Amino acid sequence: MTAILERRWTPEGALDLPALVRPLRRGPGDPAFQVDARGTWLAGNTAAGPGTLCLRVAAGEVLASAWGPGADVLLDGVPALLGARDDDAGFVAHHPIVAEVRRRRPGLRLGSTGRVWDVLLAAILEQKVTGTEAHRSWRHLARRHGVAAPGPVPDGMVVPPTPAAVLGIADWQWHKAGVDGGRRRAIIAAAQVAGRLERAAELGGAEGRLWLRKVPGIGVWTAAETAQRAWGDPDAVSIGDFHLPGIVGHALVDRRLDDAAMLEVLAPYAPQRHRAVCYITAAGLGKPRYGPRFSPRDYRAI
C-alpha cells in the first residue's frame, strides 16, 4: 500500500469544511471527490504526480492525510485550500441578505487549490451545457482515462486525466464521453499548453484570468470558474452563467437581470464581487421558474 503522510493544521477562526470544498465536487458520484465516515476525500494531479487527500476536523483541528507522489504538494496546500490565504479586508455588505449570511456563516471563505489543470478541465466540460451533461462527461473521462487514486480510498475513486492522457483520447472516445467538438477542441488546446497555464494561479486576479483566455475556447465564464477554485479569486464573477443573473437579481433587487445589469448591481462590491455572490448563493433563495427546465442533450447519440 502507498505510504501515508499526515499533518495537522489549526485554522484561525471558524472553519466551514463542507462549504470550502463543495466547489470542487463535480456533481453526484464525482469519482475524484468522495465523502465517507473517515472524512472528505479529494484526488488530483500535481506537479509531482497524482495524489489523494483526506480531510477531517476534530476539536477545531484539521487532520490531513495524503497518499501518492503528490502527497506532499497536497498537504502543503491544505491551509490555502481551506481559506487561510483568503483576505476579505475591506469587504462591506451593501445589501441585508449579504450582511445576514456573512454574520451567520463566518467560516464561509474562498479556498484555492493552487493548481489549474483539474479545475480547468472540469470547467470546460461545463461550458454551454446542463450540469447533468457536464457531470456525466466528467465521470466518464475520469473513470476511463484517469488513474486509480492512491491510498485506502473509497471504492471507485480516481484521479482525473492528466494533459498527456487527454491528448491520447481518440475522436470516438470523446464522442462516447458525450463531449461535442467545441469543448473537445478547447480541452485539447488547453492540454497542449497545460504546463504554462499553471502560471495563471501564480499571477492571480484579472491577470491570471486573462492568461487562461489566451487559449482558444476559454472565455470569460470558464476563466472565472477556474479562478474561483484555483486561486480563490474574490472578484471572478461567472459572466455568461445561465442561472446566476437571476439568482443575484431576485436576491438583491427582486427582479430578473441580465449579465450587464447583474454587474451594475454588484459594482459596489468590486474588487470582491465573487465573494458577494458566494454569500448570495449560500442564502439558498434560488429564483422563480418561468418555463420548463432545459433538457439535457446526449452528444453520444448524435
Automatic annotation (TrEMBL):
GO terms for cellular component: cytoplasm; protein-DNA complex. It comes from the Bacteria. SUPFAM superfamilies: DNA-glycosylase. One of its GO terms (molecular function) is DNA-3-methyladenine glycosylase activity. One of its GO terms (biological process) is DNA alkylation repair. Gene3D superfamilies: Hypothetical protein, domain 2. Keywords: DNA damage, DNA repair. PANTHER family: DNA GLYCOSYLASE (PTHR43003:SF6), DNA-3-METHYLADENINE GLYCOSYLASE (PTHR43003). This is 3-methyladenine DNA glycosylase.
